[in-house]
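sry for the spam today, last one i promise. struct tokens for design, 522 residues
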């Protein structure tokens, strides 16, 4: 029943309809009007007086508080008043169910926070079942004694139940209104269960947070106009309705906050679905050649267009810069200048095709040395590692973006739309980053035979260094072991030794300068 106040949110966010099911027995609980006092002191004095009256008559009382601090204030006031009671909050979580189960015994006073004791039924007269279970587990008693004691407990409980029922059932006394009507209804709902009698009342003051924000000044003006004496309270339906209206405003504001947060989360969630779909396809695909080829063609197309713009004339081309970039960054050697000079007419599209074809052949040569099946495992590992690393960085970037996006409102921009636009741009950069990382690694990776690897290892050891980070190895038809290693990370210093100069020959024996081989900067 308490979900009814949140029916709009259930429908708006989750698409769920809320249906209120009537109780199987009519409710007899008397929900009395709120009493509003000028000060917190007057409110607590009135609440303690109500508790004392109920205790003297033998009626059980459940005192509801909005926080542990307030429950400790009531605890101290009841101690000063000499009224025996139980305190139920997060500090007594081990005995929580036991305390609240006995809250219906005659004369019992129980202080509870909003969260404490939920899920435990408060039976008028107390819960006798636990005492009966303890008796039945006592092996020192004979069957006859055990049965007699159980009969006595049930008879005593019946008397207590009838007494509490005659006194009006469980009395709910709340010392403050919560921001949400749902929490207040849950507190009231602990009384009057299954057709039992019960009553509830809220004691408020103009110093309460909810009253101070929404209705304090108006109610205080009424009190001053009526010249109400100290300790006198306002008790009227219009005040109770005004408070409920204030609660609705707070609930609407909180709902807007949650809805906005959900809309921001939906942006990241949509991107997460794309990333995880890509990961699943990579994990399940028997061959990744098509994906790798598409990435490589896109990356090289971007590189070529930097030096040879689309639909441009030959005078705008920088073929020397393109050749240098392809050789240094992508390990693709082409004499494009000679081809252009020796040809009557060549277009920018043909140059792009030549570059992509050369890269395709260089890559297939590496795959042929290791074997397509073995190389696919290497491709899968590199793709997954690149996706995971960049996705983590992307999530951090989205968090930073969200923290400051509200400032766009000062520029007369809609922060939510700005967040969606920039998050999409970051996601596009993420995909480009993965594509470039994977393609660069695939094009610069070196395949070495066991003899070459032994020679490089010996050369590094002679200089006090070692080769590490071997990525993959597989036997060839001749029995030699060929190793796939990352050109940028294969040689890592194992110990301090002779420093290799940037322009010295690479110790791996490739014939290249160290800065263009294992000493190449990422």
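last one done:
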């Amino acid at each position: 029943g308490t979900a009814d106040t949140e029916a709009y949110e259930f429908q708006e966010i989750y698409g769920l309809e809320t249906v209120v099911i009537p109780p199987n027995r009519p409710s007899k609980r008397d929900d009395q009007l709120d009493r509003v006092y000028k000060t917190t002191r007057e409110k607590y004095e009135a609440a303690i007086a109500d508790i004392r009256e109920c205790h003297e008559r033998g009626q059980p009382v459940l005192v509801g508080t909005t926080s542990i601090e307030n429950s400790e204030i009531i605890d101290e006031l009841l101690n000063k008043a000499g009224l025996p009671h139980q305190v139920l909050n997060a500090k007594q979580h081990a005995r929580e169910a036991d305390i609240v189960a006995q809250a219906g015994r005659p004369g019992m006073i129980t202080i509870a926070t909003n969260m404490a004791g939920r899920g435990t039924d408060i039976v008028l007269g107390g819960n006798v079942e636990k005492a009966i279970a303890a008796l039945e587990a006592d092996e020192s008693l004979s069957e006859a004694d055990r049965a007699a004691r159980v009969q006595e407990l049930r008879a005593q409980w019946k008397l207590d139940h009838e007494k509490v029922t005659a006194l009006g059932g469980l009395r709910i006394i709340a010392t403050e209104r919560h921001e949400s009507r749902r929490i207040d209804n849950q507190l009231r709902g602990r009384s009057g269960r299954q057709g039992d009698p019960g009553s509830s009342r809220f004691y408020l003051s103009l110093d309460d947070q909810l009253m101070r924000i929404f209705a304090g000044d108006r109610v205080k003006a009424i009190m001053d106009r009526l010249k109400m004496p100290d300790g006198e309270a306002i008790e009227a339906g219009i005040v109770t309705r005004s408070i409920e209206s204030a609660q609705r405003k707070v609930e609407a504001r909180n709902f807007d906050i949650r809805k906005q947060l959900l809309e921001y989360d939906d942006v990241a969630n949509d991107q997460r679905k794309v990333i995880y779909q890509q990961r699943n396809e990579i994990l399940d695909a028997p061959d990744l050649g098509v994906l790798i080829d598409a990435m490589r063609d896109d990356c090289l197309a971007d590189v070529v267009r930097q030096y040879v713009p689309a639909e441009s004339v030959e005078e705008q081309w920088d073929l020397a810069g393109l050749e240098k970039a392809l050789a240094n960054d992508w390990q693709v050697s082409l004499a494009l200048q000679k081809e252009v000079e020796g040809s009557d007419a060549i277009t920018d599209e043909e140059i792009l095709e030549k570059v992509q074809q050369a890269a395709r052949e260089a890559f297939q040569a590496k795959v042929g040395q290791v074997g397509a099946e073995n190389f696919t495992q290497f491709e899968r590992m590199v793709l997954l590692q690149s996706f995971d690393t960049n996705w983590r960085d992307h999530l951090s970037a989205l968090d930073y973006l969200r923290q400051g996006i509200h400032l766009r409102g000062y520029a007369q921009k809609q922060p939510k739309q700005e967040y969606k636009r920039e998050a999409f741009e970051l996601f596009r950069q993420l995909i480009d980053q993965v594509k470039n990382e994977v393609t660069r690694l695939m094009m610069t990776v070196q395949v070495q035979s066991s003899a070459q690897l032994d020679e490089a290892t010996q050369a590094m050891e002679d200089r006090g260094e070692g080769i590490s980070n071997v990525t993959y190895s597989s036997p060839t038809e001749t029995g030699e072991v060929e190793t796939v290693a990352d050109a940028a990370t294969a040689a890592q210093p194992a110990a301090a030794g002779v420093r290799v100069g940037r322009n010295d020959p690479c110790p791996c024996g490739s014939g290249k300068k160290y800065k263009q081989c294992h000493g190449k900067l990422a």
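The mean pLDDT is 83. ok im logging off now
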